[in-house]
Amino acid sequence: MSASATDHLLIERDGPVTVLTMNRPEARNAFSPRMLSMLEDAWIDAEADDAVRVVILTGAAGHFCAGADLKAMFGAADPDDDHARRFREDADLSWRAMLRHRRFPKPLIAAVEGSCIAGGTEVLQATDIRVAGRSARFGVSEVRWGLFPLGGSTVRLRRQIPQCRAMEMLLTGDHYPADEALAMGLINRVVDDGEALAEARRIAGRIAANGPLAVQAVKRSVMETASLPEAEALKVELEIGLQVFASEDAREGPRAFAEKRTPEFRGR
Fold it and tell me: Catalytic residue numbers?
């Protein structure tokens, strides 16, 4: 699906991979009501479309996202902008759009260049795999301005990186270069500047070649068992995994292996 240059979110389909590009270069792609409303629609569409196997989230013009544009969020709304109207009428829309109140079921890869600050680092925590350009910078800086990071960081960050590193990031509001973010486990890999999206596409291609039911079931199991005791979590894993083994794809994979050919997964 194409998008105009004035859209705050660009959507590109490349076979089984959808690329969502936050597109407010003049504001380092900071969230606006229009962008958040468009993100909400994009998540819904990608989840409903069985042909979409992986989604990449990135930003335009050398930046990922500098957080919320408070002026745009709380300024006068354009009466002709349906997206802005939806944002103001639906108090939960921004949380769903930022993946705070949504568990997106398909693999989600972040391709980060430049600024990934405040809400940018918060939405990053809802992604599964994270690639960053060498000059990217990360931080949850709300406390520097007397604000609270309501995008989920006080819950998610300490579960994803060592608690002492999470607390330092949350309490100082400092910004961290990509190499340090890699060392603390916030991101998966660092590439040359300008190469994050290309690397994300390569990873997406590898994931999209796998059985889609198996991939989504693996992600579902990881999400649903995250806070459960081991014995209970293993029961949930077994229930989810057995559903995959009952699928046509689970028969196609071993058959293709035995016949020394590429599997033709159909998602059923």
Answer: 122, 142
